[in-house]
Please model this.
Amino acid sequence: MSGIQKTALVLTIIGAINWGLIGFFRFDLVAALFGGQAAVLSRWVYALVGLAGLYAISILFKPAAEVEREHPTEPQS
Model:
């Protein structure tokens, strides 16, 4: 898995956790940390999470052979 894929995965997980907190507890962690939903930094975080989610769609449809080629499970002879 490449660095951009790991970054996208981490941002997508952050977004999922934030949505879980909103759904279960009506608490927006991003807004609480960065000064409200309308704050510039919060909007940047929301935008990055959204872009990461869109990029994760491409990872979902990546052929398994291509994933194996990036990180082989067994040494190649």
